[in-house]
Amino acid sequence: MIVRILQIFGALGMFLYGMKLMTEGIQKAAGNRMKNVLDFMTINRFTAVLTGFLVTATIQSSSATTVMVVSLVNAGLFNLQQAIGVILGANIGTTLTGWIIAIIGFQFDIAAIALPAMAVATPLLFISKWGKQNTGEILFGFGLLFLGLSLMKNSVPDINSHPEILEFLRNYTDLGFATFIIFVLVGTIVTMIVQASSAAMAVTLTMAYYGWIDFSTAACLVLGENIGTTITAYLASLNTNVTARRAARAHTLFNVIGVIWVAALFHPFLSLIEYVIPGNLGDTSLLPPRLALFHTLFNVFNTILFIPFVKPFSRLVAFLVKPRKNEDLARYRLVYTATGPRQAPEINILKAELEIKKMAELLEEMFPATAKAVLSSSRETREIAAGVEASEEHLAIMYEEISQFLVHCSRENISTRNLEKLNLLIRICNETASIGDCCKKLAVCAMVKADKKIDFDKQGMEEIKTYAGMVKKFLAFNREHLGLRMAASQLMEAEAMENAIDNSRDILRKASQKRLKTGHAHVKTEILFIDILRHIEHVGDHSFEISRALYKMNSSPQPPASAPLPVQV
Questions:
Q1: Which of 8, 46, 208, 515 is positioned for an S-S bond with 287, CB 3.0–4.6 A?
Q2: How many CB atoms lie within 10 A of CB 269?
Q3: How far is Cα 430 from Cα 396, in angstroms, rounded to an integer?
Q4: Which residues of 197-220 are buried (b: 16+ CB within 10 A; e: fewer)?
Q5: Domain extents for the chain?
Q6: Cβ atoms within 10 Å, residue 520
Q7: What is the structure's pLDDT at 557?
Q8: Is the CATH code 1.20.58.220 the one for domain 346-554?
Q9: CB 243 within 8 A of CB 79
Q10: Is 84:310 a contact under the CB 8 Å cutoff?
Q11: What is the pLDDT of residue 163?
Q12: For residues 529 and 509, what is the distance between their CA atoms, to the nearest angstrom?
């Protein structure tokens, strides 16, 4: 008996690993298109639901989708209503796995499908020059998944040879509503333990197919699995901000409310399934497709029920999930989730690019503010400088969080190309933080100007304004190209901006030195003027390093002859 149990768990482990391998392969293959997906899902609640469905149906993991949504909400890229829409769609998308198992897993010789798929996948995995490793992972994972399911089927003892199993289960199948509660809880607990509703669904379908449990009992387990699958998003949200925690709790609340209304209509709902898929009740081969249909209709009806009430539902979740005591709602957090299914490197890279773009957007506000502080009156300078200092502190927190995220991602088993991308993102993040430090130094110069009552003449003010405008244009240029392909001509454009900034600095510095020699300017004024030029010029230097890294990350590896190679990090 112990050996049989170990065989079942071993087969389940093979199923889980096959699902993981196939999911990661699909994520890698689709990772580069994720930006378009994210843009589409933010249009309205219906596109959010559709996107959640398509992403989950593609990557075959609602847990991966919901974890990604929670992390993006935590980063401020989605609001709660958009996240709820995606989660609703993800719940429908995950039902596709049940159909695949029900149709292929129990209607065909699975080993006849699994082994050829793994045979085709093997050369794709090991012959790197073909560049088909992602396809190999998908096929090999597919083969392992169904081979595990085949072994699970063969390991389950025949109910006719072991009637004591049925007798044991019958002790809990005639308790009325208590039976419903018991098996919903069992489905919930099992799914929470394995953190994969697909695996729990496979076990449920197998037990139903071999007559261990009847249709109603299996349906209760499926309902519990819908609740249990929310544990992954819950764990992912533990160290996140209040909005991300609300998104995770919305996922749980959505499924719990769905189970409650199905409990009230349980037997009519089962009758509907039996009407759609008619047949002899004693024919256990009908149970897998019936359970797959039950799973799908439950999530479809639940989504239809919730879509009109997304706004009030989000307000309810906000009411139920309060900010923690002394929680700083503005505190930036980017948590790397090591629990549950891990996201593919391409998705993590996309996520990091989106976060760094937020840093760039903050810089586009900070730098003009520092220039304004330099050119303003004393009272206004102090107010602006205080705001710049606060923004720089926030930028430093972003830098720390994003850098830690990238370092964690780089520790995964990833390709050399993806590791290079992560290293370049770390470089871009570092250069962006350095620009923030330059802005802080400019704010200090502005305060010195105010405290010592130093005034620049009209010409000096205009020179600083023009020079700062050149750098502001460079910052906007890089922000626009974050996450996009940077062509060779665009890198040359960046180099031209950097050269123009350096040339202007040299001209302005010589003019300042000339004023000092002729005695037409005060020494303190010109020293401060040169310091301001130096910090502005450093912003240009860091901006060009960002352009070089963007070129190497998003374009072909060979830059134009006139531009130096990006620095390897």
A1: 208
A2: 17
A3: 10
A4: bbbbbbbbbbbbbbbbbbbebbbb
A5: 2-320, 346-554
A6: 10
A7: 43
A8: yes
A9: yes
A10: yes
A11: 47
A12: 9
Q: Where are the alpha helices (DSSP H) in 377-487?
A: 378-410, 416-451, 458-481
User: What one-character-per-residue DSSP string does 351-364 give?
Assistant: HHHHHHHHHHHHHH
CB-based contact 356:482 (threshold 8 Å): yes
Decide: 136 and 122 in contact? Cβ < 8 Å.
Answer: yes
What's the pTM value of the predicted model, to 2 decimals?
Answer: 0.58
Residue 192 has which token pair?
């929470």
For 160, list phi and psi in degrees, rounded to 5. -70, -30
Token pair in block for residue 463? 């020179």
> How buried is residue 324: exposed, middle or buried, by Cβ count under 10 Å (0-12/13-18/19+)?
exposed
Q: Are the CB atoms for 27 and 343 separated by under 8 Å?
A: yes
Cβ atoms of 276 and 293 within 8 Å: the answer is: yes
Concatenate the DSSP letters of all residues of 138-166 into one string. HHHHHHHHHHHHHHHHHHSPPTTT-HHHH
Residues of the chain short of pLDDT 70, as ranges, are 1, 16, 19-20, 22-24, 26-42, 58-61, 63-64, 71-72, 74-77, 105-113, 131, 149-150, 152-174, 194-196, 239, 281-282, 325-347, 413, 519-521, 554-569
pLDDT digits (tens, 9 = 90+) for 82-115: 888 888 888 888 888 788 777 776 655 556 667 7
Longest Cα–Cα distance in the chain: 108
What single-letter amino acid sits at 498? E
User: Amino acid identity, residue 18?
Assistant: G
Residue 173 has a pLDDT of 62
Query: Which residues have a Cβ under 8 Å from the Cβ of 277 and sit 6 or more positions away?
Result: 286, 289, 290, 293
- Of 25, 32, 72, 75, the C-alpha closest to 52 is 72
Q: How many residues does the chain have?
A: 569
Q: Which residue has the tokens 């879509």?
A: 307
- 228 phi and psi angles, rounded to 5 deg: -65, -30
Plot region of 485 (φ>0 → left; ψ -120 to 50 → alpha; else → beta)? beta
